[in-house]
Amino acid sequence: MAEDASTTALTLKDIAREAGVSLATVDRVLHNRPGVRPDTVLRVKEAIARNAFQPHVAAAELARGRARRFAFVMPSGPNPFMQQIEAYLAEMSGWLSARRLSVEMVATDVFDPSVLAASLEALSGDYDGVAVVALDHPSVRAAVNDLVEAGTKVVTLVSDVPSSRRHHYVGIDNIAAGRTAGALVGRLIGQRSGKVAIVAGSQGLRDHAERIFGFNQVMASEFPDLSVLPVLEGRDEDDRSEQLLARLFGRHADIVGLYNVGAGTQGVGKALTDKALTDKVSSDSGREKRVVFVGHDVTSLTRRLLLQGVMDAAISQNPGHEARAAVRVLLALARGEPILREQEKIRIDIVMRDNLP
Amino acid sequence: MAEDASTTALTLKDIAREAGVSLATVDRVLHNRPGVRPDTVLRVKEAIARNAFQPHVAAAELARGRARRFAFVMPSGPNPFMQQIEAYLAEMSGWLSARRLSVEMVATDVFDPSVLAASLEALSGDYDGVAVVALDHPSVRAAVNDLVEAGTKVVTLVSDVPSSRRHHYVGIDNIAAGRTAGALVGRLIGQRSGKVAIVAGSQGLRDHAERIFGFNQVMASEFPDLSVLPVLEGRDEDDRSEQLLARLFGRHADIVGLYNVGAGTQGVGKALTDKALTDKVSSDSGREKRVVFVGHDVTSLTRRLLLQGVMDAAISQNPGHEARAAVRVLLALARGEPILREQEKIRIDIVMRDNLP
DNA sequence: CTGTTAGCGCTTTCAC
DNA sequence: GTGAAAGCGCTAACAG
In the predicted model, what is the mean pLDDT of chain B? Predict the structure, then answer.
């Protein structure tokens, strides 16, 4: 186990000597560049393997000279979650520039496939890597594949295009997230029986659809005493979500649980507090009459709702982690380094009042 | 916002020219080394600030030449959580050696203050950084302070010595973890009333004591219908925990919740399943008679218990994250780089069946 | 106090 | 196909 501390690490030169070739040849083999006879390749590869040689990244980075450019293609318009990702990227600026990396934000309408595809196509050739909040649509897939074809490293962020040739997906498993939400709603409701409402942005969005799927799975199999009402489509808008929900509360007196799949949390919260007032139920007194409310993401709003006890749990994907993971993965891909999968995996966080980050 | 892509990043030389001094002088100022007249220091600092100059880490790392050595002082004896940390460190070996970093494991009896202190003292001078699973005790504090004095960077891991001069703590807030456990036990019990049991390793361990404190806080203030029984001290041993618990179940028929603060999970799980058998309660049928069980850490054992439905939730600190954060923090400290606090912060994870990592 | 200079271990021309 | 050599941007002697 103990290593001889006096031996300093091997260098390219050592490998070159051992394989009986020059520095340049080892370098070519190391990067699978052409222009080396097959048997020389073999000799060099053996020498590398025999010594478990690891090239010094700092030296490589310095010698390249050229800076690397990454682009982040994000939704235009105010979305607190996306703004957090941007804020965390901004926070890394010192780290980035000390490594001669630049990341540029590209705002676009990610909900319009052709607009998004066009934005992606426009990036071709100018960047070493692209992170994109992708919509799963054939023309987007084609644009992603074109980028990959052109040698750009591509990671999808938050929302995936599994059928594309993107190199990596940085985000959560949304079916599992929906299952987690379902388990929480069911368990927190406890012994009571009644109805459960779902508010989503749109069932056309892949991530929302997947979350609903997971949620229903758990509800059906594990909580037979709870019946799930048809999904309300709030389009992630506060007013619309509030109105739809208020109307639903009017029609069903026995709603005991609520799952908010997307944004529009403000409206959902408002509908809930209004209902509590009407029912003359404070969060302390009548716990048994309260509606269990589970939603997504930790923002200043959901944070407040959790502290107030209006919201019971938020399912969250750490935006800071997603931002940094996207950068690290793009960098590793660009350098040809391996990705630390375990490090870059985004977990499904359950956030309640006492473990608010 | 847009930057001129044609200008390549500044270098030390540019700053030197602008300040009218030599490379070496800029380097001295950059690292607060002595031997520069105060007014020259000022001129250089201004030039650096004016250009928001960031030295190229790769160049600095390469020029230093010397490799960096870190030591991880961990408990001897089989502890699954610690073994996971070691496994994740091993997984980083490629990453580490590509940066000419080495980490060495030092096993010691971290529960004996004098032994731990001696192990730490023995490291002095040989390492650039030390990560230690620390016991909060005066002699350990002294040993940590000595290391810091000698110029070694020190981070405490999992268990802190807040009063020492350690540079950083990589771990969770255990009071908040206990609060989270309490909220979960209380909320998952639902409308039922009854007694809640606590099994800890020892109340003398700082982290266990803090968790219990947080747990009781929440129980007292938010769940008046639940009464907490005196803490059982299982010494993190399976057999002892099982026996203590079995006896407790015999004495109290109305136990509805259980918090396992430390290890010994196997024994706790066994006591619970035995009780369920005696009570003729399957996890499906009599949910209302089941004991809500919350513990710590995701290991192969707790994973199984969660999947079986014996355990309801595990409070967890991501061991992979802790391992990598400790390395990154030590490296940043050694290089004099800023620490990305948000990145290195260890969160309190709530893990249930559906969001198992 | 300040400047000069020889590398660190790679990558990248440009010759052969 | 292969090799020699000139840097990349710093750091660390060593001179002055």
Answer: 92
Chain B residues lying within 8 Å of A69, measured CB to CB: 5
Q: Which of B61, B91, B320 lies at the smallest CB-CB distance from A58?
A: B61
Smallest CA–C1' separation from B26: which nucleotide?
Answer: C2
Both tokens assigned to A222: 């594990």
Closest CA to B245 of B218, B222, B221, B265: B265
Is A306 inside any structural domain? yes
Q: Which of A200, A204, A207, A153 minimizes the C-alpha distance to A176?
A: A207
Q: How confident is the model at residue A58 (pLDDT cuts 50, 70, 90)?
A: very high
Which structural domain range is residue B20 located in?
A: 8-52
Q: Which residues of A272-287 are buried (b: 16+ CB within 10 A; e: fewer)?
A: beebbeeeebeeeeee
Supply the pLDDT for residue A4.
Answer: 41
- Residues A185 and A304 placed together within one structural domain of the fold: yes
Residue nearest to nucleotide C6 (CA to C1'): B63
pLDDT 10s digits, A3-37:
444 467 899 999 999 999 999 999 999 999 999 99
Residue B248 falls within a domain, yes or no? Answer: yes
The answer to whether strand D lies under 7 Å from the CB of residue B18 is no
A339 plus A279 within the same structural domain:
no
Amino acid sitting at position B242: E
Q: What is the pTM of this model?
A: 0.92
Helical pair B38-50 and B23-30, crossing angle rounded to 10 deg: 90
Assigned domain for A47 exists: yes
The CATH number assigned to the domain holding A36 equals 1.10.260.40
Domain count, chain B: 3
- Helix, strand, coil percentages, rounded to 5, for chain B: 50, 15, 35
For the stretch B157-179, pLDDT in tens is 999 999 999 999 999 999 999 99
Residue B253 in any domain: the answer is yes
Question: If you write DSSP's letter for every residue of B154-194 in order, what string do you get?
Answer: EEEESS--TTS--SEEES--HHHHHHHHHHHHHHHHTT--E
Please tell me the distance in Å from B3's CA to the nearest CA on chain A: 9
Distance CA A312, CA A310 (A): 7
Q: What Å distances lie between residue A270 and A301, A324, B50, B211, CA to CA?
A: 12, 34, 49, 35
CA proximity to A62, closest of B219, B151, B56, B146 = B56
Residues linked to residue B356 through DSSP beta bridges, in sequence order? none
- The separation, in Å, between residue A149 CA and nucleotide C13 C1' comes to 27
Co-location of A180 and A165 in the same domain: no
Question: Residue A220 belongs to a domain with what CATH number?
Answer: 3.40.50.2300
Residue B272 CA to residue B259 CA, distance in Å, equals: 12
Do B77 and B161 lie in one domain? The reply is: yes
Check whether residue A183 and residue A252 sit in a common domain: yes
